[in-house]
Amino acid sequence: MGKTIITIGRQFGSNGRIIGKKVAKKLGCDCYDKELIKEVAKQSGLWEDLLDNLDEKPTNSFLYSVVMDPYAFAYSFDNSNYGLNLNQKAFLATYETIRQIATEKSAVFIGRCSNYILKDMDNVLNVFVYAPIEDRVNNIVTRYNDITEKQARDQITKEDKARAAYFNYYTSYKWGNVESYDLCINSSVIGVDTAAELILKSAAEMRKR
């Protein structure tokens, strides 16, 4: 059986990471979320702490670039690295690491524009996990005992804005748009376990084509 690559975009608090971990476990492959940072640091020589600070989080100057030219980078990362800022260099290192892993073995990638990075590869299933805001607030409050509902709501807004800005800047897709993915799942409707099974079944059907 050939490799299976699954990418999972997710709204903050939608349990997308948990679903991805379950899928990877059933497939018997690695799931790359924060784990990807170690791999990028190993392959690029960039500091792990630096990559962690920049991970899916644009800076103020980065956000300015998004507003001024939202697709500026989407068509340029095959060009020279000359003149790239630190955020862009970190993205290129992430890009190269994701590509290398995907050519070598089956894997589940969480976020990091992985659906766009692997858009020209076979056997890649691109998933987006979402959920109603109230359910996501409850998920965050349950996960972190010392956070209030207001703090959870504020964190959701902050994280989703950062992820969308990061994704929309580095790709020619739009974060959360159904056309950017093969499968969109409301995790509140079908639950974590059923969502994982649906992804696995979809990946199996994809391999038959």
Largest sheet: 5 strands, parallel
Helix proportion: 55-70%
User: What is the first-to-last residue Cα distance?
Assistant: 13 Å
* Sequence of strands across the biggest β-sheet: 2-3-1-4-5
The tally of helices reads 9
Shape: globular
Uncertain residue segments: 60-80
What structural category characterises the helix and strand content? alpha/beta
Cα gyration radius (Å): 17 Å
- What is the typical, i.e. mean, pLDDT? 85
Order of helices and strands: EHEHHHHEHEHHEH
Q: Using DSSP, what is the number of strands?
A: 5
Proportion of strand residues:
5-15%
Task: Write a structural description.
- The chain is of the alpha/beta class and 209 residues long.
- The chain is built from 9 helices and 5 strands, in the order βαβααααβαβααβα.
- The chain has helices spanning 16-27, 35-44, 48-54, 60-68, 86-104, 114-117, 133-143, 149-170, 187-208; strands at 5-10, 30-32, 107-110, 124-130, 183-186.
- The protein has a 5-stranded parallel beta sheet, with helices on both faces.
- The chain is globular, with a radius of gyration of 17 Å.
- The two termini are 13 Å apart.
Task: List the main descriptive attributes of the protein structure presented here.
209 residues; alpha/beta; five-stranded parallel sheet; 9 helices
Brief sketch in words of this structure:
56% of the residues lie in helices and 11% in strands. Helix 1 packs parallel to helix 9, helix 2 (35-44) crosses helix 5 and helix 7 (133-143) crosses helix 8 (149-170).
Reconstruct the topology from this structure.
Layout: E1 5-10, H1 16-27, E2 30-32, H2 35-44, H3 48-54, H4 60-68, H5 86-104, E3 107-110, H6 114-117, E4 124-130, H7 133-143, H8 149-170, E5 183-186, H9 187-208
Parallel strand pairs: 1-3, 1-4, 2-3, 4-5
Helix pairs in contact: 1-9, 2-5, 7-8
